[in-house]
Write a structure and sequence with these properties.
The complex is a heterodimer.
Chain A lengths: L2 H30 L7 H19 L2 H25 L4 H24 L16 E2 L4 H4 L5 H9 L2 E2 H19 L1 H11 L1 H6 L4 H27 L11 H11 L4 H20 L3 E2 L4 E2 L1 H18 L19
Antiparallel strand pairs in A: 1-2, 3-4
Chain B lengths: L19 E10 L2 E11 L4 E6 L5 H8 L7 E6 L2 E2 L5 H6 L2 E4 L11 H6 L8 H19 L14 H14 L4 E5 L7 H16 L3 E6 L2 H7 L2 E6 L2 E7 L5 H9 L17 E11 L5 E11 L2 E6 L6 H9 L5 E6 L2 E2 L9 H6 L2 E4 L3 H5 L6 H4 L11 E2 L2 E2 L1 H14 L16 H13 L5 E5 L7 H16 L3 E5 L3 H7 L2 E6 L2 E6 L6 H8 L4 H6 L2 H17 L7 H23 L7 H5 L22 H7 L23 H4 L1
Parallel strand pairs in B: 3-8, 3-9, 6-7, 7-8, 13-20, 13-21, 16-19, 19-20
Antiparallel strand pairs in B: 1-2, 1-4, 4-5, 9-10, 11-12, 11-14, 14-15, 17-18, 21-22
Helix pairs in contact in B: 14-15
Classes of the chains: A mainly alpha, B alpha/beta.
C-alpha cells in the first residue's frame, strides 16, 4: 500500500467516523445522565431525512441542518417524555423511536417527492461542501506533512470539524464544570443529586436534549455532506455501532473518539477493498461489507473488558425517602 | 458556618427559640395515617432522640422536615421562624442537613466531588474543589471527621462514607443535623467514633436529631428523647429521667422483656462437629483458617465478631452453598463439603436448617407470596406433592397455620414477602426453618433490621428450640444478642476462632479484645498495655474491615418502607389508639422544653448508672462473677462519657 492510498483510506476513515462520533457523543450525554438510548439510529435517520428534504426544498443546507436537528430533538423529547416523565422502559421507547423513524421517513419522502422513498439529489448550496483550511494549497508541496495536512486534515465539511471539536469540549464539560459533575452524578446516583436540591428531571431532559442536537447533526452530516440526499435506511446501523463504540469507550469522550476512528477505519477498508484476491480464493465483497459489524461483535465480546455503565442507567428515578 | 447558637445561652432557656419546632404535623398516605398531629420542640445544642419501631412514622416525619413530603397539616419553625420546606433545597437553606440510613452518595466520585455536588460556587469546578478542600481540612480538625478528600467514595468503609455524609451537611452550613438509623451499618468501633463526632458537634452548638430503634444508643448519647408509635408521638422525656425498659414499653405499648428468659442449658452430645475448616474465596483470600468447633444438642453457641471476619463464610459452608476443606460431622457422620453432592437441600435432609444472614437475598424471594416462601428448600417434600404437581391448597393452609403460630402480621399468606415489615419477614423465615424440626439450626443475624417486639419473639423461639434439645449456631454482630442468647460464646477474628468463653465468665470488654484479634493470654498477663491499644486496635480492625454488610442497608430501608403501609393499615384496624393511660402516663409525658433546662454541652446529663445497669440486665457483663476490668484506662464503650 503506498502513501497516497494510505492517505485516502485514512481520509475516508475520518469522513466515516464523523457520524459515528457525533452519535456516540450524543449517546454519551444521554447515558451519562442515566437515560439509555438505543434510539440514536432512529434520531439520525429522521434528521438525515428532514435535513435532506428541507435542504432540497429550500436549497439552503443550513436550513436543512436546522430541520434535521429539530426532527431529532422532537424524537428526543418523545424519549424523554416516555422514560423520564412517565418512567417508561427506556429500551422500549428507543426501539419504538427506531421503528417510527424507519417507517415515517420513507413514507413522508414518498409523499413529498415521489422518488421511491428518497429525496432528490442535493446540489450546490444544498450540500455541505469541503472546507479548505488556510495554507493547505501551499503546504501540499511539503513531503509527508504537506499531503497529510492538505488531504487528511483539510478539505472536510464543517460538520467534521464540529464533530472532532466536540470531543475536547465534551470532556471539558463533563469533568471540569458544574454541569458535568451534576450530569455524571445523575447517571450514577440520582438520589444524591435530588437530596442535594438539584432537579433530576431537569438535568436528564437537558442531557436528552443535547443528545438530540448531536444526533441531528450526525444525521444531517450523513444526508447533506457524506452523501447527497436521503435514501431509505441510510444510517445502516450506525446508531448501533455508535452505541457499541460508546461501550467500548466506557462512556468517556476521548476513548469515544478512538473507538469511532477504529470503526470508521474498518468501514473505510471495507469500502476500498471490495474483493480481496488472496490467490487461492477471493474474499467476497459481502464479507468485507460485513466485516465492520463482525468486528464490532468481536471487539465488544472480547476486548472491552469490564465496562461498567452508569449505575442508574436505564432506571427511571422514583423519589423515595 | 452559620452562627451557631452559643452553648452559654442554654443557661437562660426561656430566651432561646427551639432549633426545630413542629406543631401539629399530620401526613396521610391514602387511608394510612403515617403521622398524626405531631408536635416536638428541640432545643439548640442538644441531641434529641426519636425512637420507635419500624413503621412508626419516624422516617416520614424526617422526610417532611427535609422536604421530601409535604405535610397535610401543621407548621414547622426553625429557630423560632415559621419555615416552609417544599423541597430539599429549602431544607438546606434552612440549615437542615440529613444523613440518610441509605447514603445518598455518588459511589464513583471522590469525597470532594460528593461534598460540593449541588453546592458548587460557580459553573467551573476548580474553585469549588479548592475551597471544599480547605473547608474539609478545617472540619476534620474541628470534629474528628477525617476522610481523605481524594478517595473514591465506594472504596471507603461504611463508617467513612457516613462521615462524608456528615461533611456534606456541614459544608452546606447545616446547624441542624438529622441522622436516620446511623449505626445500622457500623461496627461497634465505628459507632463509638460516630457518637464522639456527635458530641463534638453538639459542643459546637449544633442540634442533632437521632432516629433509631436501638435503645442503647438513645440512652448513651441523647439529651432528650421522643417516642413514636403508630404515627403518633407518645412521649417526650429527658433521657436522664427514663430507662430503656420504659422507653421500650412506650414504643411497643406493652411491657417488653429486654432480656431473654431462659433456664440454664443442659447440653448433651455434640451434634455438629467442625474440624479444621478452611475456605479460600475466588480472590484467593483465605476466609476460614482452620475453624474447629462443636455444638451440642440443647445449647446455643454464639459466634461473636466484627462483620466480615469469616462468620458469613462459616454459615455458607455449613448451609451448603460454599465449598471448603476440612471435616464437618452431623450426628457423627461427616458431610460432603466439596459442593459436588451437597447443597442447601441435602443439608436440610441431614437435619441442618438455616436462617440466613440476609433474608432479602437468601432467606426470601421478595416478590413471591408468603405461602410460596414457606416452602423454599422443602419444596420436594412428598407431603406437599400431589403427583407431579404441588398441592398448593395444603401449602397455603400450612402457611396460614405457621403464620398464626409465629404471630406474623398481617397473617395473610397471599401477601408478597416484601410487603411485610422486617420483623415479620424474619418470622416467616424462622417459621419455615424451625417447623421442620431440624437437629441443627444455623442462625445468622436473626434480628437485623427487626423491631423490638419481634426481637423478643424471635429470641424466645430460638430458646424454645434449644430447650427442645436442638443444637443452635448463632452468628450475630450484636454483642448484646450474643450475650443474652448464647450458652457458649466463640469469637471469630480474621477467619479464626480466637477463643471460647462462657457468658457468665466473660464481659464485653474481653470479647471486644478478642474481636479485635488480641488473644486472651496477652490480656491476662499484662493488663495495662493491651488495654491502651484497644481503641486503636478496634478502630483499625473496624476500618480495615470490608464493608460486607453494606448490602443489608438498602434491604433494611426497603423493609421499613414496605412495612409502613400494611402494618399501619393493620394497626388502624385492630390496635387501640395509642394515648393509653397506663404505661405512658407515668412517664412525665411531653415536656415543655422552654421551661426544662437541658444540659449545657459539657454538662451532658449524666446517664444514671441504674438505667445503664438495667439496660445491661440482659447482658451478664456486670454479673458479680465477672472479673473486674483490668484497668480504668480508655474503655472504648464508656470513654466518651467519662471523658
Amino acid at each position: 500500500m503506498d502513501f497516497a492510498t494510505l492517505l485516502q483510506v485514512l481520509d475516508s476513515t475520518i469522513r466515516l467516523a464523523t457520524p459515528l462520533l457525533l452519535a456516540c457523543l450524543a449517546g454519551l450525554y444521554s447515558e451519562r445522565a442515566g437515560i439509555f438510548d438505543i434510539g440514536l439510529e432512529g434520531k439520525m435517520l429522521a434528521a438525515a431525512f428532514f435535513s435532506a428534504a428541507i435542504a432540497s426544498i429550500t436549497g439552503d443546507v443550513w436550513m436543512g441542518l436546522g430541520a434535521g436537528i429539530l426532527a431529532s430533538m422532537a424524537l428526543s423529547v418523545l424519549h424523554g417524555l416516555a422514560s423520564i416523565t412517565f418512567r417508561g422502559n427506556q429500551l422500549i421507547s428507543g426501539v419504538a423511536i427506531n421503528f417510527l423513524a424507519a417507517g415515517l421517513t420513507v413514507l413522508i419522502a414518498q409523499d413529498w417527492f415521489s422518488q421511491g422513498g428518497r429525496t432528490p439529489s442535493l446540489i450546490g448550496e444544498g450540500r455541505f461542501g469541503p472546507i479548505t483550511l488556510p495554507g493547505a494549497e501551499a503546504a501540499a508541496g511539503i513531503p509527508i506533512i504537506g499531503p497529510i495536512y492538505a488531504e487528511l486534515i483539510s478539505g472536510h465539511s464543517i460538520l467534521v470539524y464540529v464533530a472532532f471539536l466536540m470531543v475536547p469540549l465534551t470532556w471539558w464539560l463533563m469533568f471540569r464544570t458544574r454541569f458535568g459533575l451534576r450530569l455524571r452524578a445523575v447517571g450514577e446516583a440520582p438520589e444524591a443529586v435530588d437530596t442535594a436540591g438539584v432537579s433530576v428531571i431537569g438535568l436528564r431532559y437537558v442531557a436528552v436534549g443535547i443528545c438530540g442536537i448531536l444526533c441531528g447533526i450526525a444525521g444531517a452530516y450523513l444526508a447533506t455532506a457524506l452523501q447527497a440526499g436521503f435514501v431509505k435506511d441510510m444510517t445502516a446501523g450506525r446508531g448501533f455501532i455508535a452505541l457499541a463504540a460508546l461501550i467500548f469507550a466506557k462512556w468517556r469522550p476521548w476513548y469515544a473518539l478512538y473507538a469511532c476512528l477504529l470503526f470508521g477505519l474498518l468501514q473505510a477498508i471495507a469500502l476500498r477493498y471490495q474483493n480481496i484476491d488472496l490467490g487461492a480464493f477471493i474474499v467476497p465483497v459481502q464479507f468485507m461489507d460485513a466485516l465492520p459489524y463482525i468486528l464490532t461483535v468481536v471487539i465488544l465480546a472480547g476486548f472491552v473488558g469490564k465496562a461498567i455503565p452508569p449505575r442508574a442507567g436505564g432506571e427511571p428515578y422514583v423519589k423515595e425517602r | 458556618m452559620t452562627t451557631a447558637v452559643a452553648p452559654e445561652t442554654d443557661i437562660v432557656p426561656t430566651t432561646v427559640a427551639p432549633a426545630i419546632e413542629l406543631k401539629g404535623i399530620s401526613k396521610a398516605f391514602g387511608p394510612v395515617q403515617a403521622n398524626k398531629n405531631i408536635s416536638i420542640s428541640v432545643k439548640p445544642g442538644t441531641i434529641h432522640g426519636i425512637i420507635g419501631e419500624n413503621g412508626a412514622g419516624k422516617s416520614t416525619l424526617m422526610s417532611i422536615l427535609y422536604g421530601f413530603y409535604k405535610a397535610d397539616r401543621g407548621e414547622i419553625f426553625i429557630h423560632g421562624k415559621k419555615t416552609d420546606i417544599p423541597d430539599s433545597q429549602a431544607a438546606i437553606r434552612a440549615g437542615i442537613g440529613m444523613v440518610f440510613q441509605h447514603f445518598k452518595l455518588v459511589p464513583n466520585f471522590t469525597v470532594l466531588e460528593n461534598v460540593i455536588l449541588g453546592a458548587e460556587d460557580g459553573p467551573l469546578l476548580r474553585s469549588s474543589l479548592n475551597k471544599a478542600r480547605g473547608v474539609l481540612k478545617q472540619l476534620a480538625a474541628e470534629y474528628e471527621l477525617h476522610v481523605d478528600p481524594d478517595a473514591i467514595v465506594e472504596n471507603l468503609s461504611v463508617g467513612h462514607q457516613q462521615r462524608v455524609e456528615i461533611l456534606k451537611a456541614l459544608y452546606r452550613q447545616a446547624d441542624i443535623l438529622i441522622l436516620d438509623e446511623p449505626t445500622g451499618v457500623l461496627t461497634p468501633a465505628e459507632a463509638d467514633h460516630l457518637f464522639r463526632i456527635l458530641d463534638n458537634l453538639r459542643s459546637e452548638g449544633k442540634t442533632i436529631i437521632l432516629i433509631t430503634h436501638k435503645l442503647r444508643e438513645i440512652m448513651k448519647s441523647t439529651d432528650t428523647v421522643s417516642v413514636m408509635r403508630r404515627g403518633e408521638m407518645t412521649a417526650t422525656v429527658k433521657t436522664s429521667e427514663t430507662s430503656p425498659e420504659r422507653l421500650a414499653e412506650m414504643m411497643v405499648g406493652r411491657k417488653v422483656l429486654l432480656h431473654v428468659e431462659k433456664q440454664p442449658a443442659s447440653p448433651k452430645d455434640p451434634v455438629l462437629e467442625i474440624e479444621n475448616l478452611r475456605l479460600v474465596d475466588d480472590k484467593g483470600v483465605e476466609r476460614l483458617k482452620g475453624i474447629s468447633l462443636n455444638v451440642r444438642a440443647g445449647e446455643i453457641l454464639g459466634i461473636a465478631g466484627v462483620a466480615g471476619n469469616g462468620q458469613s463464610e462459616l454459615l455458607e459452608v455449613l448451609g451448603g452453598y460454599a465449598d471448603a476443606t476440612g471435616t464437618v460431622r452431623v450426628n457423627g457422620q461427616s458431610i460432603d463439603l466439596t459442593g459436588k453432592h451437597s447443597d442447601g437441600q441435602s443439608r436440610r435432609a441431614r437435619g441442618i436448617a438455616h436462617v440466613p444472614e440476609d433474608r432479602h437475598r437468601e432467606g426470601l424471594i421478595m416478590p413471591f407470596t408468603a405461602w410460596e416462601n414457606t416452602i423454599f428448600g422443602y419444596h420436594r417434600d412428598p407431603k406437599i406433592q400431589s403427583g407431579p404437581l404441588m398441592n398448593n391448597a395444603a401449602i397455603k393452609a400450612e402457611a396460614a397455620a405457621k403464620m398464626e403460630r409465629f404471630d406474623v402480621r398481617p397473617p395473610n399468606p397471599k401477601l408478597a414477602a416484601r410487603n411485610f415489615s422486617g420483623g415479620n419477614q424474619q418470622k416467616i423465615v424462622l417459621a419455615r426453618e424451625i417447623e421442620r424440626n431440624p437437629d441443627i439450626l444455623l442462625v445468622g443475624q436473626p434480628t437485623r433490621g427487626v423491631d423490638i417486639g419481634a426481637i423478643e419473639f424471635i429470641h424466645q423461639q430460638i430458646v424454645r428450640l434449644r430447650d427442645e434439645g436442638k443444637a443452635i449456631l448463632l452468628v450475630s454482630v450484636e454483642l448484646d444478642e450474643i450475650f443474652s442468647l448464647s450458652d457458649r460464646i466463640a469469637v471469630m477474628f480474621d477467619g479464626q476462632i480466637m477463643g471460647e468463653r462462657l457468658p457468665s465468665e466473660t464481659n464485653e470488654k474481653e470479647l471486644g479484645l478478642l474481636m479485635a484479634g488480641i488473644t486472651d493470654t496477652a490480656n491476662a498477663a499484662m493488663p495495662a498495655s493491651p488495654m491502651a491499644m484497644t481503641e486503636t486496635e478496634l478502630q483499625e480492625a473496624a476500618e480495615a474491615e470490608p464493608t460486607s454488610d453494606a448490602e443489608a442497608v438498602p434491604s433494611a430501608t426497603e423493609a421499613e418502607t414496605a412495612a409502613e403501609s400494611p402494618d399501619q393499615e393493620q394497626a388502624a384496624a385492630e390496635e387501640v389508639p395509642p394515648p393509653e393511660p397506663s404505661p405512658a402516663g407515668e412517664d412525665e409525658p411531653v415536656e415543655e422544653f422552654s421551661t426544662a433546662p437541658v444540659s449545657a454541652p459539657d454538662g451532658i446529663p449524666s446517664i444514671d448508672t441504674g438505667s445503664i445497669a438495667s439496660l445491661s440486665a440482659s447482658i451478664p457483663m456486670s454479673a458479680p462473677s465477672a472479673p473486674p476490668p483490668p484497668t480504668k484506662t480508655e474503655d472504648p464503650e464508656e470513654g466518651d462519657k467519662n471523658g
